[in-house]
Every structure is written in C-alpha cells, then in structure tokens.
Amino acid sequence: MKILVTGCNGQLGKEMYAILEKELPGKTIYTDIEQLDLTDAEAVKTFVIGNEFSHIVNCAAYTAVDRAEEDKALCSRINVDAVCNIANAASAIGAKVLHVSTDYVFDGKAFRPYLESDKVNPISQYGTTKRQGETALIALAPDSIIVRTAWLYSPYGNNFVKTMLRLGKERDELKVVDDQIGSPTYAADLASAIYKILVSHQWVPGIYHFTNSGVASWYDFTNAIHRLGGIKGCTVRPIPTEDYPTAAARPFYSVLNTSKIKATFNVETPYWMDSLEKCINILKNSEN
User: Fold this and answer.
1) Is 11 helix (H, G, I), strand (E, B) or coil?
2) Can you list the alpha helix ranges (DSSP code H) found in 52-202?
C-alpha cells in the first residue's frame, strides 16, 4: 500500500497525517499546493504514475464558501478540474481514490437526515463545484469512494470553533444564527473513518456520509464551545439567518444520514459534544 494525501496542510490533511504516521508509518506521501499543483494535469499525472500510488485521499478543496461567489474560476479549478486530474491519473495506474465532499450539495429543505441517494440541489458556488467534482470523479474513476461531511473543525487552521473561542474572549456579546441545523464534525473522527476504509478488507465504491452523531444549530454549537472553553463573560444571542446576510446561501438543514458508512465499513460516529470537548482540551493544552 502506498498512499497520497493531498491538501495535507488543511484541517483534515493534518489529522490524516497524525493517524497514518501512527498506524501505517512510511507508507504515505503528503502534498499541498507547494509540492503539487492539482490543477496542473500533467504534473499530477507524472507525480501519481511516478510514485505508483495504490490509494489517493483527496483532502484538497476550495472551502471559502462566501469568497467562492466572487472567486468562481479558482473555486472551480480546485473543486472540479483538480478532481478530474486526480481521477485521470489514478485511472492510468489503477489507484483507488477517496474524495471528500460536503453537505452543501443539498439545498437544506429536507425534513429528515439526507441519504446518499437523495436528490442533490446545491445553492452556492461552493456546493455546485463540489457536486461537479463528485460527478466528474464518478465518470472518470467509477471505482472511487466519496465521503461527504459537514461542519468540520479541528485544532488546526481557521474554523468555527477557534473563531468562537477567540470572539468569546474579545467581545461581551455575540449574535449567532439559530435556524441552520447540522452536525458539527471533528476532523480527527473523519480521518479515523477514512483510515478504517483504507485498511478495510473490502473496497466498496460509491458515496457515503460521515459526520459526528447528534445535531445542533450554530447557536447551540457556540454555546457548547463557550461552555467547554470556559468562556463566561460573553452573552450569545440567537438570531435568524435573515439577520446575518452572507454572500453565499447556506442550507437550513444539512444533517446527513450516516447509516451506510457505519454498516459498510464499521466506522464509529462519536457524539458531537464529546468530540468537541476533545478538540477544545487539545487547544487548551497547546496554550499552556
């Protein structure tokens, strides 16, 4: 087994490094834009074929949801063209691709957790390009696995948890949307699920959903972050989405049904608040 992990400097990429170097030391090459430009088809093909990878885990993505509404060309190059390049290179040597996608492929109008088979209808440029990436990958490398996730956070990079901790220390009051519902997901738990798929005795192509268990609004999430982070001097007030306009539309409901990935690969989906506590404890320890 020889693995390529792209997007290694991102939240998920760093968690993949932590678990793979512990469990499968020396079997993985990690790249980001500095080492390999995924939008350069020839460079990707040369790199993948030259290293004879057996598996490619694509953690690279354009994820700045609001900025994507203006920066459409770059968003499309990273979320669509790069995926095509990976798929073509993988197909040339028979490598298996595991690609990470998003809840934003749905419009958020559901009344129950989304199944992998439910109709997609992205309502933002980010969501649209991620769906186009899925479609391209399935067409070019049908043996691939796609894992959709949601509301990802970790001790690394910029994310909602770290932002709310910082703002909670800086401000007396925060207004947070309470009518968008999802499942906060710890990147380390997603990395663990991906590892389990990589070492599974079976490779079952298709789309899967992975998030932590349980649901919350952004308001609920913020309150939990502050409570676990020991922040007491900041009042968090709930507001509707209409009072917090953004460039990109967000799904009101983006809870994903995770039954398929649990049944197929026997992965665990820890309760979101338990995983949040683990992440915040890591951040606390890093400050000491």
Assistant:
1) helix
2) 72-76, 82-93, 125-140, 160-170, 187-198
Query: pLDDT-based confidence at 151, cuts 50/70/90?
Result: very high
CA distance 6 to 149: 17
Strands 216-217 and 181-182: antiparallel
- Tell whether pTM > 0.85: yes
Closest CA to 236 of 208, 255, 213, 216: 216
Amino acid symbol at 117: S
Structure tokens at 288: 């000491």
Interatomic CA distance for residues 183 and 244, integer angstroms: 20
Give the DSSP letter string of 118-150. SPP---SHHHHHHHHHHHHHHHH-TT-EEEEE-
Two structure tokens written together for 150: 């949601």
pLDDT tens, 109-140? 999 999 999 999 999 999 999 999 999 999 99
pLDDT digits 0-9 by tens, 219-232: 999 999 999 999 99
Contact (Cβ atoms closer than 8 angstroms) between residue 153 and residue 215: no
Q: Residue holding tokens 């998003």?
A: 102
Instruction: Indicate the SS3 state at residue 272.
Output: helix
Q: What does the alpha-carbon distance between residue 55 and residue 101 come to, in Å, rounded to a whole number?
A: 17
The token duo for 281 is: 């404890």
Task: State the Cα angle at 62 between 270 and 113, rounded to 5°.
Answer: 35
Residue type, 111: F
Q: Which two tokens stand for residue 40?
A: 């350069």
Q: Number of C-alpha atoms within 13 angstroms, CB side, residue 139?
A: 10
Q: Catalytic residues, which ones?
A: 126
> In sequence order, what DSSP letters do the residues of 195-216 get, joined into one string?
HHHHTSS----EEEE---BS-E
State the Cα–Cα distance between residues 51 and 54, nearest whole angstrom: 9
Assign 15 a pLDDT band (cuts: 50, 70, 90).
very high
